[in-house]
Amino acid sequence: MLRATLKGMASRKARLVLTSLAVVLGTMFVAAAMILTATMEKSVTGVIADAFTDVDAVVSSADDPAAAQGNTPSATLIPADVLETVAGVDGVEAADGDVTGQVNAIGDDGKLVGAFAPTIGFNWTDADTGFNEIREGRGPEADNEVIVSARFVSDAGLGLGDTVTAYSYTADRAEYEIVGVFGLSGDRDSLAGETQMGFTTTAAQRLLTQGEDAYMAIYVDGDVSTDAIAEAVGPDYRVRTGEEASEEAAQGFAVVADIMGYIFLGFGLVAVFVSVFLIINTFTIIVAQRQRELALLRAIGAARGQVVGSVLAEAVVIGVIASIVGLGLGVLLGWGLSQLVSSTVMGGLPVQLQVPATALGALAVGIGVTVLSAIIPAVKASGVPPVAAMRDAVNPPKPLRGITIAGIAVTAVGGVLVALGLTDNLGDLGLGGFLTGVGIAFVGITLLTPILSRPLVALLGSVMSWTFEGRLGKLNAGRNPRRTAITASALMIAVALVTGIATLVSSFKATTEELTDQNLESDLIVMGQQGANIPTFSRETLAEIKALPDAAAVGDLYGELFGAEVDDEPTTLYASEDLATSLAVFSGTVAEGSVDDLPDDGLAVNESAAEDRGLALGDTVQVAFADNTTAQLEIAAILDDSQLTDGWWVAPAQIEHFTVPKPMQAYIQVAEGADIAAVEDEVDSILADEPEVNVTNNAEFVEQQTGQLDVLLASVQILLALAIIIAIIGVVNTLVLSVLERTRELGLLRAVGMTRGQARRMITVESVIICLFGAVLGIAVGIGLGWTVQRALEEEGLTSFALPWALIVSYLVAAVAVGLLAAIAPAARAAKLNVLSAIAYE
Amino acid sequence: MPLSTPPAPQSVQQSRGLQQRSRAAVTATGLWRAYGSGEAQVVALRDVSVAFASGQFTAIMGPSGSGKSTLMHCLAGLDTTDRGSVDIGGTVITGLGDKALTKLRRDKIGFIFQQFNLLPTLTAEENILLPASIAGAKADPAWISQIIRTLDLQERLSHKPTELSGGQQQRVACARALATRPEVVFADEPTGNLDTRSSGEVLRFLRKSVDDFGQTIVMVTHDPSAAAYADRVVFLADGQIVRDLDRPTADSVIDTMRGFENRVPLAGEAA
């Protein structure tokens, strides 16, 4: 039986290659995702482990394990006396206090160094010389000296002997002389694209701890147990071995690779999901082709199980070969992607290719999906009655009742979850429940595609019925709703995902435009692109802008985006030097109380935020600032809800408690009659010495805000392209099956005078209708998806809903193109049909 | 295109059709057709020359493998010939390209097959109009309704083939074959799948279309009682015409078959 199976497969090479391709693609992406993640993790871990080679223990604050990485501005500090305690523990040979955090440096061009990767400032100690290698000069000896990383030199355009200006959120600008350049071990310029500056401990503390003699972490060298140190420093501190600290640090760096890994895993899983439909269809074709052969086998005594086994054996062979090829290609793709990530994001990190055991999971996925998808056609094949060997293959379409009822039920469950999520009735489940609902509804709609295909195919087909062969094509497309639906599903899923995201993007654009046009009274905006830093500028610059004669009104914005709390709940705080003017610029209005001359202990908050916490005008709340001061503030004004002014506003006097006590944004309303462009130039010259921000007009602002989304959208469309390849294969398979099953009909049509061209067009119309059906359904589902998510995000500020018309039209055009492309081979087959053998029945 | 004028067989003169009998609707001259090559070669037609007079109902008979179906396929332009020529209504079809042949089948030939005559997606009426629809032409409504009346299909026009009995389906196929007023209708075992009653209806209609409308019909059959409806029976054996019988009856057909083959086909007994 197995030999018969293998021989049969050899005679169906083309179809098997096509089916295998879908399995190959799916396996490839899943494997590549796993390999990328593992490889980057391994590579990063290797590098970080180097850095921790001589570290036997790390002491950090118990509150804030992230402090060891120095990425949190509000890192909980370790006072200097703890360092002394640690140094005094038996067995400790050396204990170095580490001061690390983000700093800003101004490059040769007057702009911030490293806009997208952070500039890390730290205290340069002797311990640093093991992992870091001085290439030129020496380490800093005076507080106005700095040693910089090689990446800093190339990014800033500054070198040995030059003077560089550096500052931080909390420290004003100061000049430092570059006295040395260092590289990282392994002759690298950077760990992950960051730039580094090594200061003296005093200078680092001035920049990062507001001058306090304190540290973010203590690195211990010596033959000593972590328990001994922990006992000495007490429960306020966390003590880890160097290895543990190394692993945790590596996790932080591997996040980028993880995100990319997830994206590719997503691509892979979509490809696998779509492949399921394709494989089911292919095996249905194979079974149809072999119907007589299988019936004959049954007639001469093969058991049903043997027939199932023969079809499944074929699936196993396909699954194994395709998955192995996919895994191999996945290793290549994963290696290439790792190189790409390493060179673009990770600063030339040497890649150590790592094929994790989980990548073999991709192999299992590929084989499993192939075999499972083949089960339904295999069981059907075993049901072929022996007499079918003497009859012609006639497959009457099955009734759609069962699948439709299931589809309605599943869609309803998903819909209810979505509705509950939208109306905030899911409680703690919230977003998770909502997304699960969306997923369930998706599956439900897929089950409903066969019943939906009837009216939709008829409708779409009527557009193409102006020729007789077009009409026949339309009728053929509607003949087997299950098959049409399963074929169109591949396209539907991809188009739905992309349309959903495109709808969200266009809604976001519309929201931004609407806010800018309707709510923003200003003409010019001063702000920076948020990259690694929160861009700010100085109070003096703000004062200069406000003093411009043509600036009728200037709204300003300070923000505490980190560790502030209102009544023990983490809360973002805002402040403005002149809240009344700022509200006017943002079209905000006061519901109760007054914001004129907000007292130092006064607070303004929007209506719904106050309502959420059961607060009213005159109530007092406790505000804890990031600098560990607290204040009792009284609600002096309730603001009407308005997107630009929602939030908690404190008085200007409280700004000094903010992590970054500098203005983040300014909104300039130009005086009536003044030339906006001229004012923009004036502001621009005022900003000459502000590396982090620039001035834009409203149109540029909208473009800036939405530009990044276009990049996101473009990358998501790759997913569509991938699914299109699989969809084409699926459509080709289905059409070949149709041509095969309707050989006699085609023969009859050709006998009574249908030309080859007409036969070709008839198949092409069928193909285009199937593809359009998939695209139209996908667009509808995608719009629904986008709409529900927009509703869910409405409270987060996504207030407008807009359809991406241009993209929708282009998807429809793409669907027609896919249809035309997929029809080429099957249509040629139909046209070449030998009329005589098609109608002969002896 | 030069008109080929082959010698008309003697039998053509003796038709009992109503209209002009002298003109041949279909003429085959010296047809050869072989399949396969070398040892496995089977010669299906050996130098067959035959003419079918316009307005005459001719049956082609012969045992399995005698070449009767091959002859019909060659006459209808469905199969190619190795040698010889076929003329339909003044057009030599041998050597024509696919396009010309397709157009010829559409405009000048009607087909009735044993089964799979109808498109399952179309109604009976749409099936009747199929050749005209394919041609993008409008069928003559008076003519169509006359055929439909004659075949008693008025009540069935909106039905799909699956909703029709075998006999009804075959009557729809007859209507389709005649709808374009073709030069000739080729019927390949049109009653092979039907019961006696339905067979009778179909054959009476074919007879009537010859008598009343002057239609030319060439029918392949192995059933002597079906052949008895024809004006003339051409017998084939081993790829050659072995007998040409005018005004056949079921008995004379059976006798003739006994004459050249010591065996009577089983189907003949049923008549």
List keywords for this structure.
heterodimer, A: 842 residues, alpha+beta, 6-stranded mixed beta barrel, 15% strand, globular, B: 271 residues, Rossmann fold, 6-stranded mixed beta sheet, 4-stranded antiparallel beta sheet, 10 helices
Account of the protein in words:
The complex is a heterodimer of chains A (842) and B (271). In chain A, a hairpin with a 2-residue loop joins strand 16 and strand 17. The radius of gyration of chain A is 34 Å and the shape is globular. Chain A contains 24 helices and 25 strands. Chain A is of the alpha+beta class. The two termini of chain A are 29 Å apart. In chain A, helix 13 runs antiparallel to helix 22. Chain A folds into four domains: 1-53 and 243-394, no CATH class; 54-242, no CATH class; 451-520 and 698-842, no CATH class; 529-692, no CATH class. In chain A, the strands form four sheets. In chain A, strands 14, 15, 16, 17, 18, 19, 20, 21, 22, 23, 24 and 25 form a twelve-stranded mixed beta sheet that branches. A six-stranded mixed barrel of chain A has the order 4-5-10-7-9-8. In chain A, strands 3-12-1-13 form a four-stranded antiparallel beta sheet. Mean pLDDT of chain A is 82; it is low at 65-74. Chain B has 271 residues and is an alpha/beta fold. Chain B has a single domain (19-260), classed as Rossmann fold (3-Layer(aba) Sandwich). Chain B has ten helices and ten strands. Chain B has helices at 68-75, 98-108, 124-128, 130-135, 141-151, 166-179, 196-213, 224-227, 250-260, 266-269, and strands at 24-35, 42-53, 57-61, 83-88, 91-92, 109-112, 184-188, 217-220, 232-237, 240-246. A six-stranded mixed beta sheet of chain B has the order 6-7-8-3-9-10, with helices on both faces. Mean pLDDT of chain B is 84; it is low at 1-21 and 263-271. At the A-B interface, helix 14, helix 21 and helix 24 of A face helix 2 and helix 4 of B.
